[in-house]
């Protein structure tokens, strides 16, 4: 049983439709292995709380706190943009960090956050590994993909219009590309993106570790905006419409375009809302 207590308090939170179970692990001592198991069991929809991921807030000697982030399938991810905004708001609501500006440790590096209730703006770690224009084949269909790591790995596939975005079978093609040999062993999140004008985009994302389309993906929205900026299609700030209909705002400095494009000062801003506070009963943490 991953949680020793009979009942564990948690907040259910949503970052623009990406939903998370967030709990204070400063005293509970849930180990990474137990966290994996807890995520896998508690994130199951209809059988338990149901969520895209689990966030454990823990003490850190150098910054305000650190987190561990687990996808719904129990895999641990280096970063999650929407989850990071929820974690910062959780820490503020729970009095773990009284000030509205804070910093916390993730496996991808230190994230800075500013609470603007209920919005949260976070400063990301530097994106890296841009590889534009990769031609990838899946089931006899060719995709032009652009890879970038914005804390976790992402590929971006640009579509030409609203209809193409609406009709894209994200579950089918996203799953195939996410597991494509080109992106192994880590695999990749897969974003289908539409540039509407120089400051507006719409995206749909197939998420690694959730193994489905989610209603929003922060690092995926950033990846899509940065690749579009590298190609000279957009400029900061970029408003990204997510599948939930909510908008994420991406800010960045982009001094150069093309394959060697560089980015600094990358920020993500959007809502991070509490759905409810509750106690998790052990009885739903069974197969
Ligand atoms: N939803 C996230 C990304 C979470 C991690 C991802 N599923 C992975 O394993 O790479 C976001 O908002 O960034």
Automatic annotation (TrEMBL):
It catalyses: (2S,6S)-2,6-diaminopimelate = meso-2,6-diaminopimelate. The record marks 154, 207 as: Could be important to modulate the pK values of the two catalytic cysteine residues. Its EC number is 5.1.1.7. InterPro entries: DAP_epimerase_AS, DAP_epimerase_DapF. Substrate binds at residues 18, 71, 81-82, 189, 207-208, 218-219. One of its GO terms (biological process) is lysine biosynthetic process via diaminopimelate. Its main location: cytoplasm. It is found in: Cytoplasm. GO terms for cellular component: cytosol. The active site is at residues 80, 217. Pathway: Amino-acid biosynthesis; L-lysine biosynthesis via DAP pathway; DL-2,6-diaminopimelate from LL-2,6-diaminopimelate: step 1/1. Keywords: Amino-acid biosynthesis, Cytoplasm, Isomerase, Lysine biosynthesis. GO terms for molecular function: diaminopimelate epimerase activity. Pfam families: DAP_epimerase. Belongs to the diaminopimelate epimerase family. Homodimer. Catalyzes the stereoinversion of LL-2,6-diaminopimelate (L,L-DAP) to meso-diaminopimelate (meso-DAP), a precursor of L-lysine and an essential component of the bacterial peptidoglycan. This is Diaminopimelate epimerase.
């Amino acid at each position: 049983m991953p949680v020793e207590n009979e009942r564990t308090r948690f907040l259910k939170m949503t970052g623009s439709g990406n939903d998370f179970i967030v709990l204070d692990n400063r005293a509970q001592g849930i180990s990474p292995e137990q966290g994996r198991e807890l995520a896998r069991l508690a994130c199951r929809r209809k059988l338990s709380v149901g969520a895209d991921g689990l966030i454990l807030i823990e003490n850190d000697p150098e910054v305000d706190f650190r987190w561990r982030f687990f996808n719904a399938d129990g895999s641990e991810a280096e970063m999650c943009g929407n989850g990071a905004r929820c974690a910062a708001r959780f820490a503020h609501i729970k009095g773990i960090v009284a000030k509205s500006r804070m910093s916390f440790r993730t496996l991808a590096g230190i994230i800075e956050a500013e609470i603007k209730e209920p919005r949260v703006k976070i400063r990301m770690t530097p994106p890296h590994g841009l590889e534009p224009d990769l031609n990838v084949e899946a089931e006899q269909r060719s995709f032009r993909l652009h890879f970038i790591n914005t804390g976790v790995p992402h590929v971006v596939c640009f579509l030409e219009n609203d209809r193409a975005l609406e009709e894209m079978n994200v579950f089918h093609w996203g799953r195939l590309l996410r597991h494509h040999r080109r992106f192994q062993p880590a695999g990749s999140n897969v974003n289908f993106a539409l540039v509407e004008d120089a400051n507006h985009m719409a995206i749909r994302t197939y998420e690694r570790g959730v193994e489905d389309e989610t209603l929003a993906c922060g690092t995926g929205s950033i990846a899509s905006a940065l690749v579009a900026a590298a190609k000279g299609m957009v400029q900061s700030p970029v408003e990204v419409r997510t599948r939930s209909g909510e908008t994420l705002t991406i800010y960045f400095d982009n001094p150069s375009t093309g394959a060697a494009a560089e980015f600094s000062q990358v920020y993500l801003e959007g809502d991070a809302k509490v759905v409810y506070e509750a106690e998790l009963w052990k009885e739903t943490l069974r197969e």
